[in-house]
Amino acid sequence: MNLRKPPKMTSFIGNLSRLPLACCVAMAIAGCAGNPKMSLSAHLQADVDNKPKLLQPLYQKLYLEGKRNQVLNGMQIGLAAMELREFDLAHRIF
To answer: Within the chain, where are the H helices?
Structure first.
């Protein structure tokens, strides 16, 4: 039975195994660095401002994400509206 530890890889090829991990970390950090904050148009912002204060961030998210997450955001708004006892608003969003 061989109990010796395998030799350490100190060659150039041994260091290449760390390259994919380093690239993934670098891309993740770079992706987080440059996201500009998006803003709404004037008429959409006015619509958000007419909603209850606690629902405004949810409506802003709904308008910023558009159709991509429309159903999810609508469900979150409807649930939050029901919790705030804004049943008419919840009925319109559902």
So the answer is: 12-16, 19-33, 42-49, 56-65, 70-83, 87-93
